[in-house]
UniProtKB/TrEMBL annotation:
PhoU domain span: 346-426
Transmembrane segments: 6-24, 67-90, 102-123, 135-154, 174-199, 211-230, 250-271, 283-303
InterPro entries per record: Na/Pi_transpt, PhoU-like_sf, PhoU_dom
Membrane topology note: Multi-pass membrane protein
Name recorded for this polypeptide: Na/Pi cotransporter family protein
Length: 554
């Protein structure tokens, strides 16, 4: 087979692997997001539980990076302590190694099963949770299929001269191999995919163990680089978690690399073949990393606080408001540019609101007063952004504007008002309920909590869609957002009816938290309705939105 054709097949198989890993993660987040948030809440109860929770979450998401981003979001909201977050990510590193071990078994027979079952579930079933579970199963099938394709594509390379010579060079220069593994993992943004590819090459005889070991250790370092890179724009309290994890990974990988290269120890005894030996080595390395690092969690927390100090605004208690405003006063005389500036500031306002919304369920379940207060403090930044946008647009309106620009200015002002109102619903309603629950030590019924978690999950997804509509002004996305409003209404109606049934049956928890359950559901629904308003001007202009839901009078 021609070399360029081999590379084309290999590139296609690699992209299928990356896409498949993304499919599994997306399906898990959409189908079982409430389970993930519950696990994250449980993980806050100690470092050992945090490490175990991180392992389980990474296995479910097939990504330690996804766990890192969840942890950063909760840390930014003030509901996840730094030592707990560090332990969580150490467990997530181990979880991603467990995923590699599972996917490395000979599961070729499972490919058609996953493709058929996942396809039927995703395309034919009406339940969204079952459809997204089908997406996960399809993703697993595509992962296994991509590994088969990689093996087939690289088969002819064994008889060539170039790859063996490159492998021999990497085997002699383990520092270069280590850096290549780290860089490749950062480029593909998936340590699971990177390690699977290295082990697949080793199983095909294309990479010797002498090169495979530093490549796998480099992949572990690269996995830490991904979360470090993605969190670089977050508040300092969130950045410290991936920074600490990166230091743990770097130190562990370098120490293991030096120890193996200087001792001459061979890992071929860890498996029946080079690929299996590398997979088992990767798993054992991460087990050792967790065991060796957990005792130093507190020390690493101190180190990262020095490496990533609070900004002046954070130190004085101005959460997230230290960000430079996007409102550019130099373009006020140019309405088109000024409206674009206001839109960017509205996007920042939406991100602030998401930071408040995301930890709400954790706070309602087991939040302390200090954690609740940190989230409530974000409402001040939201109110300030709302005021700044209104005054900025009022000044823009004093100039010469076209009819279209004037209409857009009113739309942006209305959206700022709605986002500020949504923040008030959280600060003055939901967080007050969280304090009341903490004071009285009430517990929700398992069924009731599941229903509220579903509402919250739907709200988070709709919030992302609403912010996309704000920027893109896409008509199809706007229609989807309005459709989601009806689904949210149906979920609210369902939980209301089920709650009344539990009251009738005498469920103690439901009786205890009756008023609270209904208020939380109503609050989540109200926030969703406020977000959906971003779609109304787009659909009104296109004629897709009716002026009234009433039937015409006869």
């Amino acid at each position: 087979m021609h070399f360029s054709l081999i590379l084309l097949h290999l590139a296609g198989a690699t992209m299928l692997l990356l896409f498949a890993v993304h499919m599994v993660r997306t399906g898990m987040e959409r189908a079982h997001g409430d389970t993930l948030r519950t696990m994250l809440g449980e993980a806050r109860r100690g470092q050992i539980k945090a490490a175990a929770g991180g392992t389980a979450m990474a296995v479910m998401l097939q990504s330690s990076t996804a766990v890192a981003m969840l942890a950063c979001g909760f840390a930014a909201s003030g509901v996840l302590a730094l030592p707990t977050g560090l332990a969580l990510l150490l467990g997530a590193d181990l979880g991603s190694a467990v995923v590699v071990r599972i996917l490395s078994f000979d599961l070729g027979w499972l490919v058609p099963v996953c493709l058929f079952a996942g396809g039927v579930m995703h395309l034919k079933l009406s339940s969204e949770r079952l459809r997204e579970t089908g997406r996960m199963i399809l993703g697993v099938g595509f992962v296994l299929l991509s590994l088969q394709l990689i093996g087939t594509a690289t088969g002819p390379l064994r008889s060539g001269a170039m790859l063996p010579s490159m492998s021999a060079y990497l085997a002699d220069d383990y520092i270069t191999a280590f850096l290549v593994g780290a860089f490749f993992t950062w480029v593909v943004h998936s340590s699971v995919a990177a390690v699977l590819m290295v082990t697949a090459f080793a199983a095909q005889g294309l990479v010797p163990l002498e090169a495979g070991v530093p490549l796998v250790l480099g992949c572990n370092l690269g996995g830490g680089l991904i979360a470090f890179w993605l969190s670089r724009g977050m508040p300092a309290v969130a950045q410290r978690i991936p920074v600490g994890n990166l230091i743990f990974r770097a130190m562990g990988a370098l120490l293991a690399l030096v120890a193996l290269e200087t001792s001459g120890f061979s890992i071929d005894m860890l498996g029946s073949g080079p690929g299996t030996a590398l997979v088992n080595f990767h798993l054992l390395f991460n087990v050792g990393l967790v065991a060796a690092s957990l005792p130093f969690i507190s020390a690493m927390a101190i180190v990262t606080r020095h490496l990533v100090p609070d900004t002046q605004a954070e130190a004085t208690g101005a959460p997230l408001s230290h960000r430079v405003s996007a409102l550019d006063r130099s373009v006020i005389a140019t309405p088109r540019l000024a409206l674009a500036s206001a839109t960017r500031e509205l996007l920042r306002m939406g991100e602030l609101l998401e930071t408040m919304v995301r930890p709400v369920m954790d706070l309602l379940r087991a939040g302390s007063r200090s954690e609740i207060a940190r989230v409530r403090a974000l409402d001040e930044a939201l109110n300030q952004a709302h005021t700044d946008i209104k005054l900025y647009l009022a000044e823009v309106n004093r100039g010469q504007m076209t009819v279209e620009e004037a209409r857009r200015s009113i739309e942006l002002t209305d959206l700022a008002i709605n986002l500020e109102h949504a923040g008030d619903v959280i600060a003055k309603n939901l967080l007050v309920l969280a304090e009341e629950r903490a004071d009285k030590n009430w517990r929700f019924s398992d069924e009731g909590w599941k229903e509220l978690a579903d509402l919250h999950e739907r709200l988070i997804e709709n919030m992302h869609l609403a912010l996309n509509v704000l920027i893109s002004q896409d008509q199809l996305s706007a229609r989807q957002l309005v459709v989601e409003k009806q689904r949210m209404r149906d979920l609210h109606r369902h939980t209301h009816g089920q709650h009344l049934k539990r009251l009738q049956s005498g469920t103690p928890e439901s009786i205890e938290t009756s008023g609270m359950h209904l208020e939380i559901a109503r609050g989540l629904k109200e926030i969703n309705s406020l977000l959906v308003t971003v779609a109304y001007p787009i659909l009104t202009a296109s004629g897709d939105l009716l002026e009234s839901r009433l039937a015409k009078a006869i």
